[in-house]
Amino acid sequence: MSAEESSGWRGGPMCWHLLSPEFPPQRGGVGDYVLLLANALAEHGDQVHVWCCGSGKGETLPSGVEVHPVLGNLDPADLWRVGRAINQFPQPRHIVLQWVPHGFGWRSMNLPFCFWMWGRARLRGDDLTVMVHEPFLAFREGNWRQAAAALVHRVMTILLMHAARRIWVSTERWKKAWEPYGLGRRIPFMWLPLPSTVTVLNDRAAVAATRARYASGGQQIVGHFGTFGWPVTPMLEAIVPALLDRCDRTVMLFIGPHGAEFRDRLLRENPRYQDRIHVTGSMAASDPRLSAHLAACDLMIQPYPDGVSSRRTSLLAPLAHGVAIVTTSGPSTEPLWLATEGGVATVPAQDAPAFVSEACRLLGDESARRNCGQLASALYQKYFTIEKIAQTMRSQYDHPRNGIRTAGAVAE
């Protein structure tokens, strides 16, 4: 067997080291994503090692996935111990860092961690890929402390850009944000979309029971899935009352944490909706009730101030369930969402009247709503399944000299 074959090149089994700030049972979108990714890679016959904080216990993992919950507080002593453990594995060591600045402690300014990653790549010879979930804080959007953190984030970005062999981004916008910090270094970027972390169960009985619970009179259910935090809630405050006024045979269903608090705030101003706004509370991505609640909705409203993008897992979940969706377009919106086959209805961000009109149009046209849902499901299958994502990842490691494909580094 050649050295290339034994190291996992050319489509053979590979050994991955996924480095993540979280992993189930910790709650968090990055941890849920890493769990799905590890399982999908293991199904290809790969060996997957997850290096994370927390306990790493509570999940049933397939053969081929091993969790090492040893990152601790991510201080230098912890990193030294993790480094010794990683060194026990043969090269090439393919490390995929799941990058969220605030996930790595030290008030999101863990420069020692980034120096450690630079040393792993430059001194130890590890093959480092950075998957950018979030790039860095913006300047001029807070007090001096946030500005200082934003500056440190850019120093961290420079270190990672000069350590990594390739950068993957959850949305094309992050490529534009990170690319200048390569300071002239040529490094390939690739769009690697996120999957829905909510499994589609297709449990018709559970869906019917959910509909009977919230719409016993045969009303249409309009849902919103998210965390109900700023800046989405101001948009919902402008949309929800107007939609309920115009479509009197509808009820609202708020799915996700803090939905009850938002409902209470709405009802203080609009007490007449007392019986028409329902909440579920927080449900884990693995909770089968979550799939049933999403599938029970006739329409989902998912406004975003910067527009829909492929990093919005709160939209990908209903997309995977084939539910008709009204969302917003903005500077973060990729072209695929605006295409005629996009599977979602989009209106300009901050145009609440247009958003309500589009939602009412779909609620009044069952055929259009069904078609929208079918296109949504097809779009998800084309780009966003975890199987597609794992295959795309593996395809970037088929060149024995540099470990990347030089053609098509950034997806359109």
Textual characterization of the structure:
This protein has 412 residues and is of the alpha/beta class. The protein has two domains: 3-194 and 386-395, Glycogen Phosphorylase B (Rossmann fold), CATH 3.40.50.2000; 204-383, Glycogen Phosphorylase B (Rossmann fold), CATH 3.40.50. 39% of the residues lie in helices and 15% in strands. The chain has 14 helices and 13 strands. The strands form two sheets. The protein has a seven-stranded parallel β-sheet, sandwiched between helices. It has a six-stranded parallel β-sheet with strand order 10-9-8-11-12-13, sandwiched between helices. β5, α5 (144-161) and β6 form a beta-alpha-beta unit. The model is unreliable at 1-9 and 399-412 (pLDDT under 50).
Low-pLDDT stretches are 1-9, 399-412
By CATH reckoning, the class of the largest domain would read Alpha Beta
CATH superfamily of the largest domain: Glycogen Phosphorylase B
Q: How big is the Rg?
A: 22 Å
The domain count comes to 2
Helical coverage, percent range: 25-40%
Integer average pLDDT: 91
Based on secondary structure, the structural category is alpha/beta
Put simply, the count of helices is 14
Q: How widely separated are the two ends? A: 37 Å
Number of separate strands: 13
Tell me the CATH topology of the largest domain.
Answer: Rossmann fold
Major beta sheet, strand line-up: 3-2-1-4-5-6-7
Strand proportion, as a percent range, falls in: 5-15%
Shape: globular
One letter per element, helices H and strands E, the order comes to HEHEEHEHEHEHEHEHEHEHEHEEHHH
Biggest sheet overview? 7 strands, parallel
CATH architecture of the largest domain: 3-Layer(aba) Sandwich
